[in-house]
Amino acid sequence: MQQPPGFNTTTPHLVCQLNKAIYGLKQAPRSWFLKLSTTLFHLGFKPTKSDTSLFVKYTPTSSLFVLVYVDDILITGSSDTEISSLISNLHSFFPLKDLGPLHHFLGIQISYTTSGNMHLSQSQYIRELLQRTNMLASKPYPTPMVSTTRLRQNSSEIFSDPTLYRSVVGTLQYLLVTRPELSYSVNKVAQFMHSPQLHHWQSVKRILRYLAGTIDHGLLLHHQSSSFIKAFSDVDWGADPDDRKSTSGFCVYLGSNLISWTHKQKTVSRSSTEAEYRAIAAIMTEILWLKYLLHELRIQTPHPQIFF
């Protein structure tokens, strides 16, 4: 550790006595990332422009990739020897704990099939949520929301525990990492977190009942060589009766793998044509970012196709 610049110029050799653990300070993540990224830079890695937390290193014989999320790190590459050497080098700088092949990361469970495919799920995360809300043994529902449901901010009864509502909906939002079919329903209930009412909570409970019957559902990523990008988009102009914002959505496939999706627009469109253009702009932004990322990973992609 070093003193901050200009803190004590007369006795720069003295150390600081901390009144609070440095791990809990708001400056700690930035300082840690700076230290880690500097170390990776000295080891020959470079951050990608598309994602500054993704570091790459290319040699004539191998490729290495390091993905950083605070103090959780994923390492992969084309050479097991290079991966082991990198782990050994990092261990000389920081105390590391090698957890072996990827099986659990940030609440996401990863399982592998015999054909080389990966299944991403959050089953344990869902069980903990259902236990916390006493919904684990509830009767499952076949869908997360009825198609005719129109949630509004009206004069119905106020929900008695808004803190619980915000906590559960916030947890549901993280589930969208592996459960894209929940995007629309979770987005709808998340619009009333400032003042939830009883019928909003009933919609949340329906989502929980749906999860009770689909705990092990997730995303299946197929092992394949195709890097063809396909995107599908649609929009419902002025669908929200409260703010008249349009509900648009898109899904992007890399080969046969679903990798990104989205939902409600952030601004009001004055016509269905304007809503469609906004949907096109959103999906093109996602596709361009994806192409830049794949280019930095040295993966060549043909021209993408968009379907409406």
Overall, the morphology is globular
The biggest beta sheet, please? 4 strands, antiparallel
Q: Which sequence of strands runs across the widest sheet?
A: 1-2-3-4
Gap from first CA to last CA: 56 Å
Structural class: alpha+beta
Proportion of residues in β-strands: 15-25%
Portion of residues within helices:
25-40%
Number of helices: 7
Commentary on this structure:
The chain is an alpha+beta fold and 308 residues long. It folds into three domains: 22-100, TATA-Binding Protein (2-Layer Sandwich), CATH 3.30.310; 120-218, no CATH class; 225-307. It has helices at residues 28-42, 80-93, 123-132, 162-175, 183-189, 198-213, 272-296, and strands at 46-47, 54-58, 63-69, 72-77, 104-105, 108-112, 118-121, 218-221, 229-236, 247-254, 257-264, 305-307. The protein has a four-stranded antiparallel sheet with strand order 1-2-3-4, with helices on one face. It is globular. The N and C termini lie far apart (56 Å).
Overview features:
single chain; alpha+beta; four-stranded antiparallel β-sheet; 3 domains; 308 residues
What is this entry, summarized?
Helix content is 33%, strand content 20%. With 308 residues, the protein is an alpha+beta fold. Strand 2 and strand 3 (63-69) form a beta hairpin.
Q: How would the blueprint of this fold be written?
A:
Elements: H1 28-42, E1 46-47, E2 54-58, E3 63-69, E4 72-77, H2 80-93, E5 104-105, E6 108-112, E7 118-121, H3 123-132, H4 162-175, H5 183-189, H6 198-213, E8 218-221, E9 229-236, E10 247-254, E11 257-264, H7 272-296, E12 305-307
Parallel strand pairs: 9-12
Antiparallel strand pairs: 1-2, 2-3, 3-4, 5-6, 6-7, 7-8, 9-10, 10-11
